[in-house]
Write a structure and sequence with these properties.
The chain is α/β, with parallel strands linked by helices and 494 residues long. 43% of the residues lie in helices and 14% in strands. Strands 4-11-10-9-8-5-6-7 form an eight-stranded mixed β-sheet, with helices on both faces. A four-stranded antiparallel β-sheet has the order 12-13-16-15. The structure holds pyridoxal-5'-phosphate. Pyridoxal-5'-phosphate binds next to helix 8. This is Transcriptional regulator, GntR family.
């Protein structure tokens, strides 16, 4: 049968992309034997016109079919149905490949096989959209050939910056393409910002507790760090203003949404007041937005940047937690006044972020795959989140206080005053449970009764048993005699 005799209908109200729908329909026709080997598929333009879709929709569908060897292309003649080979040779090859895996890697994996890792904030591998990304990389390589491997401009691949600008309008962030700087991960953003702005002895304000990678970057520039306590509704503004009266920081580094490590989100009033203070005391705010997209109540909290009327906010966005950390991709929105310094620091750091990865991300977002991925991880994380919340309520001893965030990956828990979370951490390791003790999140590594657990690296199936075991260990610690040995700053703990 000829495909033109078949009625192909695409569902425009469906969430699924039109090219995927088209690919699936033709695939089914081939696998069902309705389209016989060597049947010619309609020319791209003709089919696009018939279905009332863009040519690229048909191109993408045909490319997917070709990728699966369901069709073949003859230069100048068109696309034809392939002879389907049902043997499993490819699977055998794959198994052989597995045998070539470095034995030490396998040992390493086994060693951690039984560990329940609440400490890691890296997504589990199954959350990485490997197939989709592979497909997009191949499209980029077919399209751009060697250009994909040249040095990219230090500021970043222009089409990606344009795509990001459009993407940001969904979040009410307006900026020029020229304000966007591509970076090899948010950590690099923090680092080049430090190189560009901080001189020996300069002052930087941070929330307390805060992200350890930021503390390390500021310390590497010999900055003096002043820590401002964070509360459940955001940074302590009274404490902050008092410090601003005495010190002029180069910037204030904050995570207003789903803060790391606490999970706290600033109220809108606090966000606005913080912007007001930055203006009043003439300083900059560095907003580290590492997972705004992970919201469990379908409401995306506002970014500071979207409220920033006076260009006070340097916005840093990571794609690590919401996409794939190994890509090493992120971006910053920077005011014109510091653009030159940032560009120089970026160039010195790594000349440019991988051009191939930038091109692939650009196409990935343009094809709507990023949005699809965010929906998917939100669904998975929400499930993990719900199981964790229930398990905490079922098992955690009542002396433990904890905060339930509205999104993100992190939960912040506190032992009663006098107990040390480093000690809990050591006990947990012996029982194959990993947590992150609070002490590492302070610039001066104070003793802390708080600790962080994350849902990034734990599958649904192990969360309940992990929290049950953690609760047992905590009970043992509470029943031991180690109380009242330590003093804690009551402002910085729950
Ligand atoms: C708050 C925060 N900012 C930045 C980073 C670094 O992210 P990237 O992998 O994009 O360098 C992390 C990583 O854990 C983080 O937690």
């Amino acid at each position: 049968m000829n495909i033109e005799e078949i009625k192909l209908q695409l569902d425009r109200s469906s969430d699924q992309h039109l090219y995927i729908q088209l690919y699936s329909k033709i695939k089914k026709l081939i696998l069902d034997g309705i389209l016989k080997p060597h049947t010619k598929l309609p020319p791209i333009r003709k089919l696009a016109k018939k279905l009332n879709v863009n040519n690229i929709t048909v191109v993408n569908a045909y490319n997917l079919l070709q990728k699966e060897n369901l069709v073949y292309k003859k230069v100048g003649s068109g696309t034809f149905v392939n002879v389907i080979n049902y043997n499993t040779d490819t699977e055998i090859d794959y198994k052989q490949y597995l045998h070539t895996l470095d034995e030490s890697n396998i040992e390493y994996l086994n060693m951690f096989g039984n560990v329940i890792d609440f400490s890691n904030t890296t997504p589990t591998n199954d959350l990485f959209p490997v197939e989709d990304f592979k497909y997009v990389i191949n499209l980029v390589l077919d399209r751009d050939k060697g250009n994909a491997f040249k040095y990219q401009e230090s500021q970043g691949y222009y089409p990606l910056r344009e795509t990001i600008k459009n993407y940001l309008s969904n979040y009410m962030i307006n900026c020029d393409i020229s304000n966007i700087q591509i970076i090899s991960g948010a950590q690099q953003g923090i680092d080049i910002l430090s190189k560009a702005l901080i001189d020996y002895g300069d002052i930087v304000f941070t929330e307390s507790p805060t992200y350890t990678g930021a503390i390390a970057a500021f310390k590497s520039r010999a900055a003096k760090i002043i820590e401002i306590p964070i509360k459940k509704d955001g940074i302590d503004l009274i404490y902050l203003e008092n410090k601003l009266k005495s010190f002029r920081p180069k910037f204030i580094y904050v995570m207003p949404n789903f803060q790391n490590p606490t999970g706290y989100t600033y109220s809108e009033t606090k966000k606005l007041k913080l912007l007001e203070l930055a203006n009043k005391y003439d300083t900059l705010l560095v907003e580290d937005d590492y997972l705004n997209e992970l919201s469990f109540n379908n409401k995306y909290p506002q970014t500071l940047k979207s409220l920033d009327k006076n260009n006070r906010v340097i916005y840093i966005k990571s794609f690590s937690k919401i996409f794939m950390p190994g890509l090493r991709l992120g971006f910053m929105i920077i005011p014109m006044s510091i653009q030159k310094e940032i560009l120089v620091a970026k160039h010195i750091s790594d000349i440019s972020t991988s051009g191939l990865m930038q091109r692939a991300l650009d196409l990935y977002i343009k094809m709507g795959l990023f949005k699809k991925h965010i929906n998917e991880i939100n669904r998975i994380y929400k499930k993990r989140f719900e199981i964790l919340v229930k398990s905490l309520s079922d098992y955690m001893p009542k002396q433990i206080s904890y905060f339930i965030p509205e999104g993100g990956l992190n939960f912040w828990l506190s032992l009663p005053q006098g107990y040390l979370s480093d000690e809990l951490h050591d006990l947990c390791i012996k029982r194959n449970i990993l947590i992150t003790p609070g002490s590492i999140f302070y610039a001066n590594k104070i003793k802390s009764n708080a600790f962080r657990i994350s849902i990034a690296s734990v599958h649904e199936s192990v969360i309940e048993s992990g929290i049950r075991q953690l609760s047992e260990i905590i009970n043992e610690l509470l029943n031991s005699s180690n109380i009242n040995k330590y003093y804690f700053n009551p402002i910085t703990h729950l």
